[in-house]
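Hi L., both proteins are below.
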Amino acid sequence: MNERQRERLLDEVNRPSGTIGRKIPEKISIQGTTVDLNAFVFECKRLETVPEGERDRIEEVKRQLKRERLERKHRIERDDISYAEGEQLVESIRGIDRAYNALGGLDSPSIGEQMRRKKLDDARELMTLVRLGR
């Protein structure tokens, strides 16, 4: 792979919109260990709230994903690989990013829940103003 191709692949890795429409990989090898990533993320997303014990486990998986992403990016930057191998690495990095983003958003409420809370807060504020106006 030439330097121009390498730079193009690295640009793709750094593009923030690269995960849009991507699926979380079924399985991924992280430092020699195969992780059922899609199943793990699915199970975590099913939880209403993340229990303290699970939170530690999720944080550990997120650290491993971050480390693996960095290693794969370094392979694109430094290793003597073919362009096709580089493209495969970019795709795998996008899958890692997608899983990382999904795990990162577990504790934050959904858009619908945020809107519901905002409406409740607005209604409380309005009721307070009405009571004060009497």
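That was the first. Here is the second:
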Amino acid sequence: MSEREQSGQIAIDVGALYQQAVELKEYIDTLQKTLTEVLDSIESVKSSKSAIDEISKGNQEYIMIGDRKGNVMFKVSNINNVKVIVHLGMQYFIEVDPQTAKKILDDKEKELNDYSKALQAELAKSIEAYNQLAQVLSAIQAQAQTGG
């Protein structure tokens, strides 16, 4: 038995722990970015459902935004509120009545909410693991500074 084994000391590869912490931080950043995109998609779906409701009211004139930043807007009237075109995913769209469109969007919103919850759970778990690694690395650093 070595002297370390007899004294109960454990050899720790600090470099490997540090690399693990770096990789975990990158993973957390990716999860946060993905979660932000999913939450943005949820808001877009909600906005689409609101637009369907508004058009279904039969108002005479609307302002339509031409892009996400609002650089261009169009004044439109006499919108056909009998059919709307809904994005199904990838390159697929379908023309349906407003109620069917809302059902499709409700399903999409539920799917995105479920994905958001899964991402949040994974993010919480990863942050906890990162914090534990950071504590271990801090303890090692403190011990090294005191000459322990």
